[in-house]
Amino acid sequence: MKKPVKTPKLDLLQKSVIDNTDKLLTTNDGVPIYDNNNTLKAGERGASLQQDHIYFDKLMHFDRERIPERVVHARGSGAHGVFEMKEDISKYTCAKFLQKGAKTSVFTRFSTVAGFKGSTDLARDVRGFSVKFYTEDGNYDLVGNNIPVFFIQDAMNFPDLIHSVKPEPNNEFPQAASAHDTFWDFISLMPESAHMIMWVMSDRAIPRSLRMMEGFGVHTFKLVNESGKGTFVKFHWKPKLGVHSVAWNEAQKISGFNSDFHRQDLWDAIENGDFPQWDLGLQLISEEDEHKYSFDILDATKLIPEELVPVQIVGTMTLNKNPENFFAETEQVAFDPGRLVPGIDVTDDPLLQGRVFSYMDTQNYRLGGANFHELPINRSINQKHNNQKDGNSRIDILKGNVSYFPNSQADGCPYHAMLKGEVGFTSHKQKVDGEKVRQRSLSFADHFTQARLFFNSQTEPEKQHIIDALSFELSKVNDPKIRNREVAILHQIDKVLAQKVGENLNIEPSNTLDPLTIKFAQQIFPGYPFKTAKPEKETSQALSMVKSNKNDSIKTRKIAFLVADGVDKHSVTNLTKLLESEGAEAILISTKVGELKFSDGTKTNIQHTYLTDTSVLYDAVYTPSGKSVKILLDHPDYYEFVNEAYRHCKVLAFAKESESLLEKSLIKEDKGVVSESKNKSWEHTFIDLIKLHRVWDREILRKIPS
To answer: Which residues form the Catalase core domain (predicted)?
Structure first.
């Protein structure tokens, strides 16, 4: 006789469910946590301490939350290249690759932060910009972003930031997007994020190309010269092609037509010989000037305006070779801000101090153990010599019976550099004197001055884009309390900004921060908010893409030529030659693939059509003359193409016979609409306008949102 089946009194899964409501925060071992905002430091502005087991416990768990994909920066593109040092800065650093004339091989990886590996390139997000230098002194990693500041000040909050922006854990959406409750809940309770939010809501977060965005080291580092003197430094990458973006509406459509838009753009440019280049610039601050400014140079939520400390261009990076194998190179490359060489050192920036641990720990885990540096993409150009023999995925074979130091069995080898008077890495000497505390320096407590600086530095169209982005993001938030809290933060930055966003959300901005925001801020800064120091600068031209661009080139821009059978060949070839002489590319788009017949009877092969391509994939649009105009007059996809390009503030040109198409379109003629019959030098006018990138004034004049 079968025994009756007993019904469990408690479902096993349900037994594992934990409700955090009204519970004290603890470690994974159940130990109550007193402060979850600050790493343990030697003094409130001092170095982080290795004994911080609470931080290590939190970050080691975070570093292992994805298998095997990166937790952040999962979606990336990479390329090989060379860095050439052009200026003499030997008085600041003894780093050999930073000596005038030095040429160093590099591998650069660009990435988005929040999305998974399969997400779109065009998400509104921070872009990673990391460079591995294969120097003669070993590998040096400059691990940065395309935005010079960050959301948080202390590494203890990094897992919380990423958890908030990732898809919500109960339903796993939205993907690669910050427009949801958990992200803005976190941000609205962390006023230190205000400056970074201005950048992320600007067009900087939706670049036109990876080749057209700046890079920043984010943190303040130190250069160290031969005599041991240190100089604070901020690293900048300035793209030769200028800094350009796409429109938000355009970014969403590009994601649908080609989610690999940035990845393919970088690959194609290198394959075509249009090698991307960036100038390396340095902002140098003497140790004596460390406390000179109204902000703290060790605060990762702050930048140093270029008007205060000019960026000195010292060298150029050229990316000239695509990877042979995406997985072996781009996917397996491992970056770590703790990969330093003699002549460069870290500072006591608490976010940087935490990253030095977290990145190494992540790579050890993600790439299968402590030997990830033996993978070809991570291997130093000079052979490594130490007594480490074992570990998972070991590749190198070390001879002999010695795996320890000191030893006599191997004649004391490998030996210390100091034993024979050779150069080795030594940390920059600095006096450390402070109490062991979980605390943050009050010099970090000004959260809104630089957010205001950034907003005030933008042109009117750029400001409107920030307002539109904030309105879009916050309209996706379901909890009205979160929306109200964030609009109150915006009011601390700029009253007009808050008012306009508030109008779009049906919110009357509060003059003061939400009590809950103040409560959490006071857990970090008792007595917050404080009176802030007067800033040195109210605006900075370098912070505006429009103001800072030189607008002197259309190199690598893609110009759509809208054609059909019967198009006039001269109308196509004449402008094509002129565009190509300027480094741009003319691409013919027709009603069907295959043969295109010119009016003179000659033919060419067409690969792009109105069904497969769209205006968002191109930088400007031209409609040539010919019998093709008659076909296009009744072709709806043609009008969708030009109308959309017009909406996105792109430059459009019309040959004389094609101007009749304007009458059936939604286009209103302005300075960005060039007609052959009205301009004798229309081709050159067309090119000059493309150099401006967009005719952003059109948004205001025509009230056409993009």
So the answer is: 26-413
For residue 149 the two structure tokens come to 């500041």
In this prediction the pTM is 0.92
**Cβ pair 241, 690 in contact under 8 A:** no
DSSP structural state of residue 334: -
Per the annotation, the verdict on 145 as an active-site residue is yes
- 70 marked among binding-site residues: yes
Distance, in Å, from the CA atom of 232 to the CA atom of 297, rounded to the nearest integer, reads 9
Superfamily of domain 442-547: Catalase, four-helical domain (1.20.1370.20)
Q: Looking at per-residue confidence, does 57 or 516 come out higher? A: 516
- Torsion angles phi and psi, residue 491, rounded to 5: -65, -30
Class for domain 41-378, per CATH? mainly beta
Provide the mean pLDDT of the chain.
93
Q: Catalytic residue, from 38, 139, 145, 146: name it.
A: 145
| Domain made up of 551-702: CATH architecture | 3-Layer(aba) Sandwich (3.40)
- Identify the pLDDT of residue 3: 55
Is 452 annotated as a binding-site member? no
Task: Tell me which residue has tokens 């990076």.
Answer: 317
Residue 574 among the catalytic residues: no
Here the tokens at position 338 are 């703790």
SS3 percent helix, strand, coil of the chain, rounded to 5, is 35, 15, 50
What is the rounded distance in angstroms from the CA atom of residue 47 to the CA atom of residue 523?
21
Is the per-residue pLDDT at 4 higher than 60?
A: no
Residue 101 region by backbone torsions, left for phi larger than 0, else alpha for psi between -120 and 50, else beta: left
- Is the separation of the CB atoms in 508 and 267 below 8 Å? no
Strand partners, 111: 76, 128
Residue 359 annotated as part of some ligand binding site:
yes
